[in-house]
Fold:
Amino acid sequence: MLVCQPDISVEYRVVEAISRRMDIIGLIRYEYRSCSDGKYARRVVVSAAMNGAQIRRQPQQERSKARVETILEVALELILESGADDLAIREVARRAGIPIGSLYQYFPSKTAILRELAKRNLELVGAMLQAELDRLLVEYGGRPTPAQAVNRVVDAYYEYYRDHPAATAVWAGAQADPVLRELDASDTRRTAEFLTPSIMVVLSLADRDSSFALAMLLAEVTGAAARLALAVNSPLREQIIAKLKIMLTATLEAHRPAAALPGGVASS
Structure:
């Protein structure tokens, strides 16, 4: 009877491994077992994609940076054409004129491409909203009303996604992936972090934790409602945005201390 006992294992980082059903880049581990006949039995164990949702190698040279940008531009075009669900790594490589092995040097999976596109979009939206808030505070001497603040922020957010359909398509693809949903949740927290000081000023609030919870809610509701509006046609689209503004303004007003209200009377 041939008996094999565990002996040693050696790990090799694989450059590229492609399955017909899914894209895999990670570790291939060769497990060696000593056998009674003096030989070794080898078993290959493939681990799951390592950091599969992350960009694999940060480009340093201009040529590499240009290649990454080409990959992302082509991926965005394909997402607009067919949706994120149908995005295929091989088609991205073919249309970009890049060997698939070269593409995998930067993006180990479709999820990694979507993550980079989503991350860039969220960074743009965050910077845009921050700039709007800064202008808002300057225009109204640091004290805009809740309605003025809501109108400015909601309009800026909605108009950005309305004018950038690719951003909406990327977001929809991200929502279908559990890993990328975490990215969206993290972005909501970051948005709430820079909204919180403005909310505290507008509402004359002193409790930062309570203001942060309010900012989280407003950021999440605004994002969901704006994207819902973009999924339907006019005039329902505009009606949703108008009612969103009414709801957010009422929510903010309900959190104003009585002393901060005109006449010092609490809202009902």
Residues 112-264 form a domain with the Tetracycline Repressor; domain 2 fold (CATH 1.10.357.10).
